[in-house]
Design goal:
The chain is built from 9 helices and no strands. By secondary structure, the chain is mainly α. It folds into 2 domains: 41 residues; 93 residues, no CATH class. The radius of gyration is 25 Å and the shape is extended. The chain starts with 5 loop residues before the first helix and ends with a helix. This is SpoVA/SpoVAEb family sporulation membrane protein.
């Protein structure tokens, strides 16, 4: 995609500034419909436009690349004589390690920005969600920085995952106790 020229950038900036000035000129005592229309035009002008098909294609490609890397790791592990279960464990560990390293090098956020859900949904996205706050709050120390902030993003996922598994286990136990299972 070509970068906008300086003339285009300055004219777009001028246009946005002009729309904001026009919006501020509409007084609160003026007609509500005119004020709402000016506001809606301003919001429309600054809201980023997204192409759903392109975003879906990027997510598909990114998720596919992560899956191909995982399959490559599985194939290598199996060729080294590991069984299916142990190969899967090594695949998960290595994908998490790769994600954390890329997060530490500040590369994973760029991949996630480009690939969207394709980079955020797999196990690599969860590892990024745990590693990013730890890296961000590292300067505040081991306890109050990393220790307190490491699960800022992933914490709710872990909490509700454990809680829902506990509730489902309780339901299963009760169902089994009363002979439903």
């Amino acid at each position: 995609m070509a970068q906008p020229t300086t003339k285009q950038s300055s004219s777009a900036k001028t246009s946005d500034e002009q729309k904001q000035k026009n919006l501020s000129k509409v007084s609160y005592g003026a007609d509500k419909k005119v004020r709402d229309q000016a506001y809606n035009e301003y919001v429309e002008s600054i809201t980023p436009k997204h192409n759903l098909a392109a975003n879906m294609a990027k997510a598909f490609v990114m998720g596919g690349i992560i899956c191909c890397i995982g399959q490559f790791i599985l194939n290598i592990c199996k060729s080294l004589g590991l069984d299916k279960e142990m190969s899967g464990s090594w695949c998960s560990i290595l994908l998490i390690l790769l994600s954390v390293i890329l997060t530490g090098l500040n590369l994973y956020p760029s991949l996630a920005n480009w690939g969207g859900a394709g980079a955020l949904v797999p196990i690599t996205g969860f590892a990024n969600g745990v590693a990013a706050p730890a890296i961000e709050f590292q300067k505040e120390g081991q306890v109050f920085g990393i220790g307190c902030k490491i699960f800022t993003i992933a914490g709710p996922v872990i909490l509700y995952g454990i809680f829902s598994s506990w509730v489902l286990g309780l339901i299963y136990w009760a169902a089994k106790m009363f002979g439903f299972c």
